[in-house]
Amino acid sequence: MPKYHKAKLAKGFKYGKSLHENAMNVLIIGNGAREHALAWAAAQSEKVNVVFVAPGNGGTALMGGKVRNVPLKAIALDGLLAFAGQNNVDLTIVGSEQPLELGIVDLFRSAGRQIVGPTKAAARLESSKVFSKEFMQRHKIPTAGYHVFRNTISANNHIELTTTTYPQVIKASGLCAGKGVFIALDKEQAITANNALFEDRIFGNAADEVIIEDFLQGQEASVFALTDGIRYRLFLPAQDHKRIGNGDTGKNTGGMGAYAPAPLVTPEVLRKVEELIIQPTLKGMVEEGYPYTGFLYVGLMIDQGEPSVVEYNARLGDPETQVVLPLLKSDFITALQASVDGTLGEVPFEMHRKSASTVVIASGGYPDHYETGKAISIADEVAEMEDCLVFHAGTSYEAGRLTTAGGRVFSVTALGENLRESIDRAYLAVEKIGFEGAYYRTDIGAKAL
Ligand code: AMP
Ligand code: GLY
């Protein structure tokens, strides 16, 4: 076995043979570092017998022990359901948004299978920004003022004829992998964005409806809840780094790093997030007839202590998961099982009193064109580094070779007694991982220090 097999992920694990008497088989759906972190957290539970990851990546392939990759795509819903039946899967965890939008939760539930995630109707909080904005308006949940458009003429007329302040934010309503948002600094940029969405159809049907909304000032943070539809439990608040360059410059990406807890989310801010956002959201979804279950991601803008919603997502964040899960002290699978059983109020949900940071190592060129198939080297000592977890994002492990297979390649997490310590530790490990063209930001967490 090559040395990177051990890349710390294996260490500290209880892969022990003595299984819990009700040993469960778990299926995780997705292939990023988020799903590697989900597999890591699931594998640590003594209740878990096998963790299947469909399709997984090089990191989950190398975990060994309880963890196995399954060659099924995240959108192959029928195949996944059949697999779950054939392999006695007790609990399925959906990592990414596409299967949720396609209705995987409805499908599994109708077949009597337990699954963590929202139904297709509830997942509209993410899959339709028009739905989510109108929902927030109905329930008086704080968010930016907005208008909805269904064709170029009306969107451009709005820009030409109304006296609006800039920037304005122009968004495709449907799923665009985090890339469907334009910040227009003036009229001309706004019209260019409208045309790109409606005329050039750069996001296809995802931009059949377009939202133009006010620009929110402040700092962003993400809060994640696990909910059974009524009760909820919160993970530690995190902050992502969406831009490719240091100092939050350059293009938007899927996320180049994260840390938690985010000091920006003070106890007072968190109280407001719960009272003004999370509670009315869950209550509103119940009242409208599609209770929201699973993970709820609330993307926030916080301005002078006042939170408003930038977006909801129907799943955990990537890379935020790579910091919030290692900070969860209680058993993850117990909490997930309780969210499915409707007993979330009765199980422990405790956090470590530590900080975590994660640094994403990307392929050169990301988020634009990049090459894959580059050989990866990980220094042996990374496996021995304390409180360090190397999550793979876009890697492939075949015939004994670990190579790059995506834009984001690794998400290197470290824990520390404080944020500074966690950041320094993460970078120590990052410097020991190499491949041609590797790129990472050097300022993850800096703005919170
Ligand atoms: P979204 O896909 O809606 O999360 O938007 C992607 C990113 O665009 C967000 O993380 C923000 O950085 C930015 N953004 C979106 N909407 C707004 C807004 N109304 N005001 C300011 N920034 C925004
Ligand atoms: N980190 C942003 C997201 O997962 O959507």
Summarize it.
The chain has 449 residues and is of the alpha+beta class.
List the helices and strands and how they pair.
Layout: E1 24-30, H1 33-43, E2 48-55, H2 58-63, E3 67-69, H3 77-86, E4 91-94, H4 97-101, H5 104-110, E5 115-116, H6 124-127, H7 129-138, E6 146-149, H8 152-161, E7 168-172, E8 181-184, H9 187-198, E9 210-214, E10 219-227, E11 232-234, E12 239-240, E13 243-245, E14 249-252, E15 257-260, H10 267-287, E16 294-303, E17 306-313, H11 321-324, H12 332-341, E18 355-362, E19 377-378, E20 388-392, E21 395-398, E22 401-404, E23 408-416, H13 419-430, E24 433-434
Parallel strand pairs: 1-2, 1-4, 2-3, 4-5
Antiparallel strand pairs: 6-9, 7-8, 7-9, 10-11, 10-16, 12-15, 13-14, 15-18, 16-17, 18-23, 19-24, 20-23, 21-22
Helix pairs in contact: 8-9
Overall description:
The chain is α+β, with helices and mostly antiparallel strands. Among the domains are: 6-121, Rossmann fold (3-Layer(aba) Sandwich), CATH 3.40.50; 151-208, Dna Ligase, domain 1. It has 13 helices and 24 strands. Helix 8 packs antiparallel against helix 9 (187-198). The radius of gyration is 21 Å and the shape is globular. Mean pLDDT is 94; it is low at 1-18. The structure holds adenosine monophosphate and glycine (GLY). Residues 144, 169, 171, 178, 181, 213, 215-216, 220, 242, 299, 310-311 line the site of adenosine monophosphate (AMP).
